Amino acid sequence: MFDAIIIGRGPAGLSASLYTARAKLKTLIIGKNESVLRKAGKIENYFGFSNPVSGEFLLNEGEKQAKRFGVQIIDDEVIAIEKDDFFNVITSNGRYTGKAVLLATGQPQKKIKIENLTEFEGKGVSYCSTCDGFFYNNLKVGVLGFKDFAVHEAIELETYTDNITIYTNGRELELSEKYIEEAKRFKINKKTITKLGGSEFLQRIFFDDGTSEEIDGIFVAYESASSLDFARKLGILVDGNSVVVDRNQQTNLDGLFAAGDCTGGFKQVSTAVGQGTLAGRKMIEYIRSL
Fold first, then answer.
1. Number of structural domains in the chain
2. DSSP for 231-245?
C-alpha cells in the first residue's frame, strides 16, 4: 500500500513527489521515460539557471532529487485506474494500491489519420469501454490500438460481447509479456485503416487494400493511456483535452488530483512545477485526513 501514487515522470509529478516524500508519505511514481520535455535541447526561461539547460538534464536531476527523499520510481506503463476503498493502479507488469493518486501524464498527443473518425464520435466511435461497452451487447466491435492499453480494453469489452477485433492500423503489436498471451483471445487485424463509413451511425471500416468489413463500434485505445483516458473511465470532469481541477488541483473524485499539461493552461515547466507543488501539498492534507 502506497500513500501517494503519481502517474507521470515529468516536472509536475516529480515536484509533487518531493513534498509527499518529505512529509514521510510512501510515494510511488509510475511512468515511461517519455516526457516531451526530454526533447527540449535548450531551456532558457526556467528560474535558477544562468545558462541554458536541456530538458533531459532537468528531468534527470529531478529524479535524483526525488530518489534522495525515498521516492520509488518504476518504469512501466499505466493502463487503468480503478477506485474502490482505495485506488488500484494497473500497469503492464503489476498492480499498485494507493490512498491518493496524481495524474501528471501530460496532454494526449495522439493523432490518428483516419477519415471520419471524429465525425463518428458518439455514433459508434468511443474512447471508454467502461462508459459505452454496455451499448454493444452481442455486437461486433473493434479496439483501435497496438499496445497493452488496447488489449486491456478488449478484455473489458468481453463482458458485453465475444465478437472483438483489435485493429492495429498498420502497426505491429507492441505488448508486454503479460499481454502477449491475453491478445491471443482476440482477432487481430493489422491492415491500415483509411476511413470509417455509415449513415447516421458507424457501419463499416475501410482498409488501404481496398477491402472493408461491417462493424458496430470502435473503441479507441491508441498508443498509451493518457490522463484523459483515465478521467473518462473514472467519471472525472474534462473540458476538451484537459482534466478539470479546482484551486487545489483536485478533480471531482476525492483523492484524485491532476497537475501539469493534462489540466490545460500555459504549457511551461514553471507552471507544471507550481501545480505539482500545490498538488503534493494537498495530497498530504487529504491522506492525513483519512
1. 2
2. HHHHT--EETTEE--
Same domain, 139 and 64: no
Residue 100, H or E segment: strand 95-103
Reference 89, options 76, 108, 106; nearest CA is 76
Whichever domain contains 258, its CATH number is 3.50.50.60
Average pLDDT, the chain: 92
Instruction: Please state, in angstroms and rounded to a whole number, the distance separating the CA atoms of residues 15 and 145.
Output: 32
Task: Write the CB contacts of 217 (distance below 8 Å, at least 6 apart in sequence).
Answer: 124, 125, 126, 132, 135, 136, 139, 140, 141, 142, 202
In this prediction, residues 37-57 reach a mean pLDDT of 85
Residue that finishes a domain, picked among 193, 220, 247: 220
**pLDDT single digits (tens) 222-242:** 888 888 888 888 999 998 888
pLDDT at 108 over 70: no
Q: For 240-257, how does the pLDDT look when each residue is reduced to its tens digit (9 = 90+)?
A: 888 999 999 999 999 999
Provide the pLDDT for residue 110.
63
For residue 114, tell me if it sits in a domain: no
What pTM was estimated for this model as a whole?
A: 0.83
Q: Are 5 and 88 in contact (CB under 8 A)?
A: no
| C-beta separation of 9 from 270 below 8 A | no
DSSP three-state, residue 11: helix
121, three cell numbers: 464520435
Which of the pair, 212 or 129, is modelled with greater confidence?
Answer: 212
Domain-embedded: residue 69:
yes
CA 265 to CA 127: how far, in whole Å? 23
**Which residue range is the domain that position 53 belongs to?**
2-109+226-289
